[in-house]
Amino acid sequence: MTPATALRSIGRPVLESLAAVGRVALFTASILSHLFRPPFYIREFLTQLMQIGWFSLPVVGLTALFTGGALALQIYSGGSRFNAEAVVPSIVAIGMVRELGPVLGGLMVAARVASSIAAELGTMKVTEQIDALVTLSTDPLKYLAVPRVLAATLSLPVLVAVGDSIGIMGGWLVGTGRLGFNSATYLTNTVDFLETGDVVSGLVKGAVFGFIVALMGCYFGMNSGRGAQGVGRATKTAVVAASVLILGSNYILTEVFFTS
After folding, report:
1. Of 24, 62, 82, 92, which residue is most buried, by most CB within 10 angstroms?
2. Per residue in 32-69, pLDDT tens?
3. pLDDT tens column, 64-114
4. What gap in Å lies between CA 177 and CA 58, rounded to an integer?
5. What whole-number distance in Å separates Cα of residue 100 and Cα of residue 197?
6. Which residues of 78-100 are buried (b: 16+ CB within 10 A; e: fewer)?
7. Hey, which of 150-159, 187-196, 226-235 has the most confident mean pLDDT?
8. How many separate helices (H) and strands (E) can be counted in the chain?
C-alpha cells in the first residue's frame, strides 16, 4: 500500500464523518429556526405529546423502579465492607436524580421513540407522502419534525421527574422490606441529602436528551434510503446515534453542573 493510498483510506472516512456532522448541524439549525415561527400545528403537537410522553411512562417507570431497588442492594452490599450501610438512602436518591434517572430514561425513550419516528418518517418518504406535503404547500419540516422535537423536549423532563420518584421508591421498598431500614429514617435521609441543584440538573438533562432523541429520529427518518432496507437502516442508525449522543452530552452536562 502506497502512502497516498493509506492517507486516502484514512481521509475519506474523516471527511465523510465531518460532512455528516455538518448535515446534522444544518438540520438542527433548521429545526430551531422553525420552532417559534407560524404556522403552529397544535393538534399534531398534542398527538406527539401523548405518543412520546404518556405512552413512554410505563417503560420508564418500570426501568426506574428496578434500577432503584438494584442500586439500594448494591450500595448496601458495598457499604457493609466499610460499615457505611447508612448511606444507602442518600446515595440512591442522588444517583437516581443526577445520573441514572435522566440517562436510563433517555436511553429507554431513545429505543422506543427514535426508532418509531425514524420508521414512520422513513416510510412516509418511501411512499412519497413527504413529497405530497410539499405539493400541498406544507413544509414537511414544520409539520412533521418540529412538533415531535418540541413534544420530546417538553415531555422527557416530566418523565425523568416521575422516573426519579419511582426509582427512589424502589430503593425505599428494598431498603425497608429487604434491608431492615426504618421507613421514616430512610425518607428523612433521602430528603436531607437531596439539593435543588441535583433535581434541576436532572431535569435539564432530560430536556436535552429529549431534543436529541427526536432530532435523531427526524433526521434519519427524513433522510432514509429507498425501500425497506433504507427504512430499517435509518431506524437502526437513529437509535444508535441518539444513544451515543445522550451518553456524550451527559458527560458534558455533568462537567457543567458539578465541576467547579
Report:
1. 92
2. 888 888 888 899 999 999 999 899 999 999 999 999 99
3. 999 999 999 998 888 777 777 788 888 999 999 999 999 999 999 999 999
4. 23
5. 16
6. eeeeeeebebbbbbbbbbbbbbb
7. 150-159
8. 12, 0
**Spatial CB neighbours of 213, under 8 Å, sequence gap ≥ 6:** 106, 109, 110, 113, 114, 152, 156, 242, 246
Q: Which long-range contacts (CB under 8 A, 24 or more apart) does 246-252 make?
A: 246/103, 246/106, 246/107, 246/110, 246/209, 246/212, 246/213, 247/103, 249/205, 249/208, 249/209, 249/212, 250/99, 250/102, 250/103, 250/106, 250/205, 250/209
Q: Report whether the peptide linkage leading into residue 39 is cis, meaning its omega lies within 30 degrees of zero.
A: yes
Of the ranges 61-75, 185-199, 223-237, which is most confident? 61-75
What's the CA gap between 256 and 99, in Å, rounded? 14
pTM > 0.85: yes or no: yes
Instruction: Compute the C-alpha angle 66/191/172, nearest 5°.
Output: 30
- The answer to whether 170 touches 69, Cβ cutoff 8 Å, is yes
**Cα dihedral across residues 206, 237, 128, 139: positive or negative:** positive
**pLDDT band per the 50, 70, 90 thresholds, residue 4:** low
Task: Name the residue among 105, 123, 129, 2 with its Cα closest to residue 52.
Answer: 105
